[in-house]
Amino acid sequence: MKKVFKLLVLIGVITFSLNFSALAQDDSTKTEETPATTVTEATAETTPAEEKTFHQVLKEKFIEGDPIWMTPVLLCLILGLAIAIERVITLNLATTNTSKLLKSVEESLESGGIEAAREATAATKGPVASIFTQGLTRYSEGVDMVEKSVVAYGSVEMGKLERGLVWISLFIALAPMLGFLGTVVGMIGAFDAIEAAGDISPSLVAGGIKVALLTTVAGLIVAIILQVFYNYCVSKIDSIVNQMEDASISLIDILVKYKVKRG
């Protein structure tokens, strides 16, 4: 189910980004093909200036920054957000009420023994319950083996929780780098225009630098957005790992008491 969800999200965001890029390029093409019309000063004065929507402003900036360089930055944002949202949903679903789970394990031990407790943990979702299930499965080999099994499987569950974070960190680093690359290429183009004109025109220099810097701004904005999601995921993982460690210690204490009662 998770794989299907990820595949649908990726297909959707890639399709959206390609459509957005195509619309932006079509918009620029239409602007270039539109013939210049002469407007009288009276008409220009009487015509009110139309307020541009946020979407229109974004589209204009996207075109001004050159879709060739802005599209990879946009893809970093979309793919990074897709992975980040999937991680946020997964991590929130992985949160377990450990006190309730421990109480259920203790009651199951008193009523039905180890097998009943293992069934109770197996019926509960989350990494903490999975660790408990693995530990209870090895109870016949002794409490020490249960502790080793819990520690070993805890590392496995921690790796599952951190899955996908490396891609978010990649997009955080990649987006500004792509922005800087677009800026450098844009600056080279601006200097080429100055060389071709044979004169340094303030409007020519300012326009070229403005267009070149748009990619850097876009890359930094993408990195900032993804960094917020990344830090949230890291803090959520730390919280879940702390829960796993505390709950594992409590489980060992419960099993020791259970063994003493039976012995």
From TrEMBL:
GO CC annotations on file: plasma membrane
Domain MotA/TolQ/ExbB proton channel: 126-245
One GO-annotated biological process of the protein: protein import
Primary location recorded for the protein, binned into one broad class: membrane
TM region(s), chain numbering: 68-85, 165-191, 211-234
Localization per Swiss-Prot or TrEMBL: Cell membrane; Membrane
Topology with respect to the bilayer: Multi-pass membrane protein
Pfam families in the record: MotA_ExbB
Signal peptide (UniProt feature, chain positions): 1-24
Protein name per the record: Biopolymer transport protein ExbB
Organism this protein belongs to: Thermoflexibacter ruber
